[in-house]
Design brief:
alpha/beta; Rossmann fold; 5-stranded mixed sheet; 4-stranded parallel sheet; globular; UDP_glucos_trans; UDP-Glycosyltransferase superfamily protein; glycosyltransferase; UDP-glycosyltransferase activity; transferase
């Protein structure tokens, strides 16, 4: 990163960088923390581009709280009406980013004219916008909000696609990537499990677009993935540099506690509460909601559960505004809240996650489908 800073400082004493985040708080939050890092630690000014599609009041409030040194631009709504109604979120986000190229070009051209842009950093759903930076002769780095192992997989996916014909779950041997644990096909990321699906076509499209980036910024750190980081450092994953610039943890930006989660936690024993949430876009089926409820009730475990409206038809349905008229609480088994009121708390849709995770009563968490 010192190299990047030195290069841009030679061009402009007050360098301006444009960032593009795909929708979803799981992407917006780490991107904002990256932007703040550029501004606070390196003296940059910045503009953050976001999408109007799939925006939420929570996202709008979050962006409104940004410091004055960070401006934001919302890309106007882009029609996705021609997509099948059961399209998964990966397809929707990729199509959205692909169709946004004219709007992003217009914003970047304007910023470059008025601010002399020195770099453009889109997130990993948006490699289709990288050619715009090339047109403007602006350095460009793709921001990957996940880890080095995922990044290594994406870099290798085009080669795997060219050299195999079977479904990956039928591969006779695991995939061996330098510095990574062996990965069986059945354990590939969900969009890559069915090579006939639209999600796979788009995830492969993203992977092929990665080669256009000059380098990558990743929300991880070397001590978390030492062997994978070494493999990248040895050039075993392609010619583009990959910088581990994380971890980016959201600071307390005035999160509201509408339902009194923190006072409830104050009454619990240290490390006694399981915090349950499945991400800003994750959507469970109705049956899964009920099974989690039954499991919690039977376990007697103290819990704080952020419940979002379920869907039996659309994965990641929260992105699509599901449940705007439905209370997620209504999908819980009858009498569940009353029966568990002594040990549990249920919160609809959103809770102050950073404060909850920092609370001494929180002893474990299940976030975005991963248990810790």
């Amino acid at each position: 990163m010192a190299m990047v800073k030195g290069e841009v400082q030679n061009r402009n004493q007050q360098p301006h960088v444009a960032f593009l985040s795909s929708p979803g708080m799981g992407h917006v939050i780490p991107m904002v923390e990256l932007v703040k890092w550029f501004v606070d630690q390196h003296g940059f000014s910045a503009t953050l581009l976001t999408f109007s599609n799939f925006s939420s009041p929570t996202q709008s409030d979050f962006l409104a709280s940004l410091p004055p040194s960070i401006s934001s631009v919302s890309i106007p709504l882009i029609s996705l009406d021609d997509l099948p109604p059961n399209s998964n979120i990966v397809t929707c986000l990729c199509v959205l980013a692909n169709r946004s190229v004219p709007q992003v070009r217009s914003v970047l051209q304007s910023l470059h004219k008025s601010n002399k842009l020195v770099a453009f950093v889109p997130d990993f759903f948006c490699p289709d916008t990288i050619p715009i930076a090339k047109e403007l002769s602006i350095p460009h780095f793709l921001f990957v909000t996940t880890n080095l192992a995922f990044h290594a997989f994406m870099l290798h996916l085009p080669h795997l696609d060219e050299t195999t014909t079977c479904q990956y779950r039928d591969l006779p041997e695991p995939l061996h990537l330098p510095g990574c644990v062996p990965l069986w096909g059945k354990d590939f990321i969900d969009p890559a499990r069915d090579r006939t699906s639209e999600d796979y076509k788009w995830i492969l499209h993203l992977a092929k677009g990665y080669v256009n980036a000059e380098g990558f910024l990743l929300n991880t750190f070397e001590n978390m993935e030492p062997e994978t980081a070494k493999a990248f450092g040895d050039g075993k994953h392609g010619p583009q540099p990959a910088y581990a610039v994380g971890p980016f943890v959201r600071s307390d930006m005035g999160e509201t506690d509408e339902f009194g989660c923190l006072p409830w936690l104050d009454k619990q024993l240290d490390s006694s509460v399981l915090f349950i949430s499945f991400g800003s876009g994750g959507t469970l089926r109705i049956e899964q909601i009920r099974e989690i409820a039954f499991g919690l009730e039977e376990s007697g475990q103290r819990f704080l559960w952020v419940v979002r409206t379920p869907s039996d038809t659309v994965k990641n349905g929260t992105f699509f505004g599901l449940g705007k008229q439905d209370s997620p609480i209504s999908y819980l088994p009858g009498g569940f809240i009353e029966r568990t009121k002594e040990v549990g708390m249920v919160v609809p849709s959103w809770a102050p996650q950073v404060k909850i995770l920092n609370h001494k009563a929180t002893g474990g968490y299940t976030v975005a489908g991963t248990q810790h």
